[in-house]
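Q: Two folds, back to back.
A: First:
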Amino acid sequence: MKKLIFLLLFLPFITKAKAQFTITNTSTITLAELRSGDWPLELQRIIKESDTLYLLSFRDKQYPNSLNMSTLQFGNLAQLKYFQKGLTALKNGSNGDEAKYKAFRIKRTDVKKNEIKYVLTTNDGDLTDLLQTEADILVKAIKGL
């Protein structure tokens, strides 16, 4: 009888217990793989339930002797399109032009006469570069969204 009373006292707590984890439906899609190998650079779309965010993943060029992967996160498509507009404006600009954003900046550096190069630096200090051909692929991938 004591066991029955004890069980009836704790039964409401047992039946209202919630799971300690939930399963979420997440998918990651690579939109553009600009580089692979030692210095990877790719644009990904991550869909998590009803949220979508975009990541630009790259290896930090400040540390050539170690593998330090960094990401630049875009919270929505509008932020990514704004990034694309900056790349397009810099393409039509000149050496030394810079596009500044809240979390990063892109600077155009013409190393050779016919080669346009961009240096992307995050506010955390992470650094990578983009050649014009890679920037064109990135712009084309973003326009397709």
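A: Second:
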Amino acid sequence: MVTELWTPTGTASLGVAPVGHNVETGSPIVAHTIMLKATDRFGKEHKMRVQVLADKDTAQAQIEEMMGNAAEKFIVDVRNKYNKRAPTQEEHKQIGHALNELRKYTKKRVASTSNRIYFKGITI
């Protein structure tokens, strides 16, 4: 039985819980749960819970390696996924005004018989 596991930096161990038995060998399977934390380029912290499943035949080094791989993949995913900052409140307002204006002109164009009412930004 594994007692103390090494966990990657930026992670917190949430404990071990039994999840079932291996059908072939009959040995118990336990889930080692860790909480991964990573910060993107804009300072927002992202968290994810990971469970590493292991039975009595799984070596401690293998469990630690699986945890390390999961943590590394999570950090890479956070860096790749969150590379653009979220719009500010003022930018949200500007986007909303532009969308409302586009909807208004779309309704006018559909209502006109000649389809000649265009959005202000488009000139023909």
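Q: And?
A: DSSP finds two helices and three strands in the chain.
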